[in-house]
Amino acid sequence: MTIPQNFTDLRLALDNLPRLSKVSRSDGPKTSDDRFNHPFSRDNGLKIQKIGSGHVEADLKANEKHLNRHTTVHGGLLTTAADAVMAAVAQSNAGKNNNKIEVVRDFAMRFHEPVLPGQALEIVSELDSSKMSSNGDKEIKFITSEIREGSGDESRLIGQALSTYVMVDPKEYLKGLAA
Fold first, then answer.
1. Is residue 114 within 8 Å of residue 73, measured between CB atoms?
2. Which of the residue ranges 10-14, 30-34, 37-41 would you say has the lowest mean pLDDT?
3. In a domain, 2, yes or no
4. Residue 115: which of 165, 153, 163, 150 has the closest Cα?
């Protein structure tokens, strides 16, 4: 994958994403790590189920409080869920660089099908590739995600996402917030 330089490049990359439909839920370790199941996610029906290096699986169950004016699940919830699961992928693959944090640089989402409240969704996100920036100062991670209803051959693709994450020094990243 080439590094997208702008939003148009990111959308083209999203168009050319390989489908994860052949990927089944991994037999990797189950998580009990609350870093990945924080209150915002729990309050919105997202539950991280499995975390492996560069691979995370989650379940999402939307209800009536997540509806838009068309009485389908709001795309913002699906986007937030994909983002949270992709962030867990970035964190799961952080390595020993404990003095840095991963932050999203770009994010693109494509919706394929609407979702009704109560439908059980599965989100699978994977590290696609990792490269150094052109000046060599930042590692850039490309992460893909699929949201599906059901599993196996009977599953229905709801949405796909692509994001890029960079590792940054938290003090530098947050210094503008200090009052």
1. yes
2. 30-34
3. no
4. 150
Q: What is the largest CA-CA distance in the chain?
A: 53
- Given strand 156-168, what is the order of strands in its sheet? 46-52, 55-61, 120-132, 139-149, 156-168, 101-111
CATH label of the domain that carries residue 105? 3.10.129.10
Q: Is 53 helix (H, G, I), strand (E, B) or coil?
A: coil
Does residue 15 form part of some domain? Answer: yes
> Cα 96 vs. chain centroid, distance in angstroms?
21
Phi then psi dihedrals of residue 71, to 5 deg: 65, 25
In a domain, 1, yes or no: no
How many angstroms separate the CA atoms of 121 and 123, rounded? 7
Domain count, the chain: 1
Name the more confident of 71 and 8. 71
Domain that holds residue 138: 7-177
Q: Cβ(126)–Cβ(23) under 8 Å?
A: yes
